[in-house]
What we know:
The longest helix is centred in the last third of the chain and has 13 residues. Strand 1 and strand 2 form a beta hairpin. The protein has an eight-stranded mixed beta sheet. It contains five helices and eight strands; from the N terminus they run ββαβββαβββααα. It has one domain: Structural Genomics Hypothetical 15.5 Kd Protein In mrcA-pckA Intergenic Region, Chain A (Roll). Helix 1 runs antiparallel to helix 5 and helix 3 crosses helix 4.
Amino acid sequence: MRRQIFQLKVSLADVTPPVWRRVQVPGGYTLDRVHRVFQSVLGWQNCHLHSFDIDGMQYGVPDPEGELTLRDELDTRLDAVATKGGRFLYTYDFGDWWEHDVTVEDVFGADPDERYPVCSAGDGACPPEDVGGPYGYRQFLAAMADPAHPEHETLRSWLGRSFDPSTFDPGRASTLARWLS
């Protein structure tokens, strides 16, 4: 029997222009590996806590302080909690609160000639880390687009590079996903 591949569409909620990725991952991946795939294909840097909300259950890295009640993502395989047509939430950075809607678009047998995970499509650049969530990202985009904006130079200096919100390269995302997962 061929291993099962889950095609997931991951969409960052409440941002314009839209940011989304279509990824194909083995169903045998534990949720911690799915998290690493999401980090790499979206462009996050894995600097913050995260969680999955699947059918009312929370999964993530267990909290040693006991303040967050999370099931251990290391013990949970994707194929045990997700089904074709299903949906779940992935939240990254509990301060900025980046919510991602995840749809299981398809489940199919692995192509023996393909290396997984694969990022087959997507749109939009991931917002920079620590920009302040969707509201802060809107302010960031406005300031970066207007050289006369009072925060333009400060934000360019803070980011340390140019930023084009429409840039996305699925080939580079696939390479990173394979390397980091």
